[in-house]
Please model this.
Amino acid sequence: MTDRWQGKEWKRIPGQAAALAMALLLAGWTQAPQLRAQDQAQPQAQPARAIRLSFVEGKVSLTKNGQELAAEATANTPLFQGTEIKTAEDGRAEIQFEEGSVARLAPNTAVTLSTLSGAGPNGDAEIKVQSGLAYFELQETNESGVMGIHFGDAQVTASGFTVLRISMDTPPGELAVLSGNARVERGEAQVNLHGGESIVLDASSSTGYVVSESVEPDSWDSWNSDRDQVLTSEASQQTGAQSQISGGSSNPAWSDLDANGNWYNVPGQGYVWSPYDASNPYFDPYGYGNWMWTPGYDYIWVSGYPWGYLPFQCGLWNFYGGFGWGWAPGIGGCSPWWGAGFYPGPFIGVVPVGYRPIRRPPIPVHGGPPRARMITGNRTPVAYANSLPARTRNAAVQIAGNTVQPLPMRYSRPQYNRATGTNGVSPVPRPGYGSTPQSNMVPARPETTPRSAPPMTAPRSSTTPRSSGSSSSHSSGSSGGGSHSSSGGGHTK
Model:
């Protein structure tokens, strides 16, 4: 047995489990069950790729191969190949890719991740827009792989940073290039489009289309820009932890951590991140969220905390006496569990005295159906310390016997402003959570039902025309209405 100091007393844990947890963490390996309350047989699965459902408002559902995964999906859900994401009349959703590309769905929209494989420059993604209105902001970095977007019987690919809007309200669909460059292929026809140009597919011809050297505004362009402002603001306020841990990854999920907590470089421990919420003695990293049934992986944990994506896909949560909970991604960066082909969570290492790790729901016997697709995992809060230090930007804290300062923010680095297409940032505060340290939290029981979405504006209906509304803040004429080249059966309007 191994003794571990837990503030006022020692927590006794099995020696082999403690040694294994520390060895795996220091080696950067994060796919082993850490001090689990129970052992479960894992299904045989292959390494996979997942992307993040990063934003949900209203009702958003997930299905795969005709099987419902979530009637009301929540943010931070990992999305795998074959998943269909569908928004209802009051729904909106955002999907984030690892290298920073995003897809956004207005109400009454459905898209399918028909292909999602590989990683980094070897990645392959194919997205099918089936109905409604969707926005795509496509990055081109050294982390980017191949990405193709299908609408109707056409496919579009991009060159460089490109912003697209696809509408399927009038099949076989139309595409607007708000910024950047795109190539559309339909049958034997091919056309190159630039920022400020749009194309409407001809329903009477398998290769026909009409190109316009202008883009009509849509009432949902402003919502897309608002989401851009949030991401841009977060990306402009970063510590050095992301580049040190991940090698400079462009994954927007790292920005969530900088915006909602502090990083500490702890001697002998490496980098440790702690959310502002953790200054509350009642905080529990697994105290708010859901167990979600996922084919091939059984139940996986989906955190309800706004920042709760990366810290629940890799690394370890540890409780440090006198400090509280912190997350250590491990040396070598965050290697999500799906890269190993099975789910080993929850990711918990050293725990406070009296803490009982949340139990993963039982796996159905003989591969039968689960008893429920979504199981709420919220628990009654328990205080594991009398008081804990506030997570402020300039206050030193004690972690594992070391006095450490939080890593400072780096505000001066230029960031690409998605909303304006220029360098520099628009300092728009992130609404609703985590914009400032929360040093005086009131202990409260986590919500046991999904948080209701705020009242929505400009509701979109698939049966009525959309108003033109406010235009996108992307410069439609950023390419100066440049000429396009084409082959096949289209013409210019």
